[in-house]
Structure formats: C-alpha cells, structure tokens
Design goal:
Elements (H helix, E strand, L loop, with lengths): L2 H8 L4 E2 L5 H8 L3 H6 L4 H7 L7 H21 L2 H5 L2 H20 L4 E4 L2 E4 L5 E5 L1 E8 L2 E10 L4 H19 L3 E7 L3 E8 L4 E4 L3 E2 L9 H7 L2 H12 L10
Parallel strand pairs: 1-4, 6-7
Antiparallel strand pairs: 2-5, 3-4, 5-6, 7-8, 8-9, 8-10
C-alpha cells in the first residue's frame, strides 16, 4: 500500500474540500458561483445584517494595533512584501489582535483560534484540515463554529469553493445560527455568511486591506482600508450564537 493510500485512509471524509470541482461545490451548497457573485452586497450591508455598528472604542484600538503590525511587516520586507506576501502572515496580523481584544472586551474566553483544525460534514462526505478556524466552546466537549478564513495567495476564486463547503458543514454542525467566512489573498478579501436557518449564502464585494504607501498614509488606511477589522469583529459577535446572545 502506498504512502498516499495510507494517508487517505486516515481521513474521516470521502472528498476533501480542496479537491472538489466547482460543479461539486455548487451541488453541495445548493447555489452557483455566478449567483453568489451577482447577488454580492457591500461590506456596509453585510455589517448591517450582522447588527454591527462601526466606531466602538475596542475596534478603534484594534485598528491601531493592526495598522502597526502591517506597517512593521511592510517596513521589514519593502515594496516586494506586497507582491510576494505570505497570505497566512497577513491573516494573522489582522485576526489575532481582533480576537484578543474581543475576548478582553466581552469576557468570552471560550472563543479560540485553531490552526489546522479538522472540519467534517455530518454525513462524512466532505472535509478538510482548515488553516484558520475560530470556535466558541459553549460546553464541555461541545463547540460552535464562528468563522473560518481560507487563504490563497494566487486566487480568491480558488479559496471560495473550499470556504463555502466548510461553512456549510460548520453551520450544520452548529444546528442553526450564522457562520462567517473570509477568503483572501492576504491583500484582497471577501466576507461570506452562511445562514443556518435557511441554508443561504451571502458574499460581499472585494475588500482591499493594504497598499504600497500605507506607511506614510495612516489616515487613508484607517478611512478606506481598516473596515476588514470591523468585518472580523462583527463575525465574532454574530457567528455561532443566536442574535439574542450576541455581545461586544
């Protein structure tokens, strides 16, 4: 038996998200990519649906932290950093300060970021080890999925199918509520939402988070690019829990 066959037998799913064709993804999620893109909403519309209002002090602090981390990264790597950026590095610079401040502000210490977390559908048909998954441990041995980040430096489209499949399986595991997702190249992002009550998906327009001269233009970054922090914070508030329980 080959090493590949041995490894394959260890997986508790039949098909990996990353090897699913677009047709397979669309069949599984019950809609087409064309429909998702044609019905995309603005970021502000997505935030409003999540019941989120911009401008809170905790989020302002997070934006300051995220800006400093991104600028350090660009200063150390120079202009080429944006071209050759490791998408996972940029993801961490954005989501870690946001999760940390959310936990400190809300007291929800059960919220946790996992790296390489296994996500599997209830029927065992699909699954994958996902790089960034945030959950809320609501009881001993029971958790709710909040959001997932799927990073692909080369293409948002390639990340989209894998993220959608994972969100569907996460939402069904939650037995209701919202699950959020983010697909990103590191530089460009989209925010996604899965509604467990009706099985519907929603996606935003593209969100740019860094630009070449941001080291000299903090005000511009705060005004036009920092909304990704609002998106992650909104997902933390609204994902995995009933709206009546949302806090922060």
């Amino acid at each position: 038996m080959s090493d590949g066959q041995t490894k394959k037998r260890k997986f508790p799913w039949k098909t990996s998200y990353s090897t699913s064709s677009q047709k397979d993804v669309e069949t599984r999620i019950g809609t087409t990519m064309k429909h998702l893109y044609s019905t995309a909403v603005t970021v502000q519309e997505m935030l409003a649906l999540a019941g989120y209002k911009e401008g809170s002090e905790p989020v302002k602090r997070i934006k300051d932290d995220v800006y400093r981390e991104l600028v350090r990264y660009l200063r150390a790597g120079g202009h080429e950093t944006l071209v050759e950026a490791n998408a996972n590095d940029l993801v961490l610079f954005i989501i870690v300060p946001t999760i940390d401040e959310f936990i400190k502000t809300t007291g929800r210490e059960t919220v946790q970021l996992f790296r390489e977390k296994q996500v599997v559908s209830g029927d065992g048909e699909t699954g994958e080890y996902e790089e960034f998954v945030v959950t809320d441990a609501i009881e001993i041995m029971q958790e709710k999925y909040i959001f997932i980040v799927e990073a692909n430096r080369d293409s948002l489209g390639r990340a989209m199918g894998q993220c959608l499949l994972a969100m569907k399986d996460m939402g069904e595991s939650n037995h209701g509520g919202m699950v959020y997702g983010f697909v990103t190249t590191g530089v460009t992002w989209r925010m996604l939402r899965y509604d467990g009550s009706d099985g519907s998906f929603l996606v935003t327009n593209r969100i740019e988070v860094v630009f070449d001269t941001m080291r000299r233009e903090q005000e511009r970054w705060m005004r036009d690019f920092s909304i990704i922090v609002d998106c992650v914070y909104a997902a933390l508030r609204d994902g995995g829990v009933a709206k009546k329980d949302a806090v922060g």
